[in-house]
Amino acid sequence: MEDMRLADRTASARENKITARGVQVYYGTNHAIKDVDVDIADRTVTAFIGPSGCGKSTFLRCLNRMNDTIPICRVEGRIEIDGEDIYDKRVDPVQLRARVGMVFQKPNPFPKSIYDNVAYGPRIHGLTRNRAELDEVVEKSLRRAALWNEVKDRLTSPGTGLSGGQQQRLCIARAVATSPEVLLMDEPCSALDPIATAQVEELIDELRENFSVVIVTHSMQQAARVSQRTAFFHLGNLVEFGETGQIFTNPRDPRTEAYITGRIG
Ligand SMILES: Nc1ncnc2c1ncn2[C@@H]1O[C@H](COP(=O)(O)OP(=O)(O)OP(=O)(O)O)[C@@H](O)[C@H]1O
Ligand SMILES: [Mg+2]
Fold it and tell me: CA nearest 51: which of 247, 241, 255?
């Protein structure tokens, strides 16, 4: 009997990439995330939706310890990736962020060349053995981010000289260059035109063959298109979490229904 339960637990641990339990986040006295439990499945796109200020970005930043960089921010509870507590003292946040990459709403290329932006992670983590390998990773990452054709003849130009949408795809290329296990994307398409948005959505779909993707979006069409699971946040609470189809067609909580039908937001 005991063995059965252990076996069950092992099976579910394999499917879940990230397990969060009892997560609380405070900014000073502002209680921004309230007792959130969530399981992020492996090889799945999970969308976080909800009105502005409900805590989507805050919760996303818990998953790669980006909140550590905000002095007044305090995170409680337990978050595990592959069963490992990411807030354990022995975990190096820099190493963690190579495994759990992030793309922000505002593109933030480094003041370096296009090539060096993408090569940055592989270089600091020693992921390639020589220049030819690094060239290959840079090209592959830029292709994945649907940017290669636009920049292949200007790899030594500054990344900051690209258009907003190109800069965002550069940041996506930079994030995928370390082959992260999890990619966190906070409204990654808000600076993109419909063509680049479609390309990024295609990329997200491709990434899920190998990684977990968590995407924050204000576009319910986008959540419905790219995700398999959707979490609805409201006032710091995780109100509802389930299969994307169910959340959009048959929400169980009246707050979810009010949001997806446009009555709160
Ligand atoms: N760096 C910060 N310092 C202080 N308070 C913050 C900080 N970031 C977020 N907050 C607060 O935490 C709460 C949740 O904000 P958060 O940015 O996570 O919301 P969000 O759901 O991502 O909103 P949006 O859709 O507008 O991006 C808000 O009350 C916000 O004011
Ligand atoms: Mg946000």
Answer: 255
Q: Is 231 in the pocket of ligand 1 (CB under 6 A)?
A: no
Q: Of all residues in the chain, what percent are helix, strand and coil, respectively (each to 5)?
A: 40, 25, 30
pLDDT tens digit sequence for 10-22: 444 448 999 999 9
Q: State in Å: Cα 167 to ligand 2 middle.
A: 19
How far does residue 53's CA lie from ligand 2's centre (Å)? 7
* Nearest ligand 1 atom, CA 59: 18
Tell me the CATH number for domain 17-109+182-260. 3.40.50.300
User: How confident is the model at residue 9, as a pLDDT?
Assistant: 46
pLDDT confidence of residue 265:
60
Average the pLDDT over 123-132 and give the result.
94
* Calpha distance 68→122 (Å, rounded): 23
First to last CA, the chain: 48
Residue that is written with structure tokens 């990773």 in the block: 137
Locate the domains of the chain by residue range: 17-109+182-260
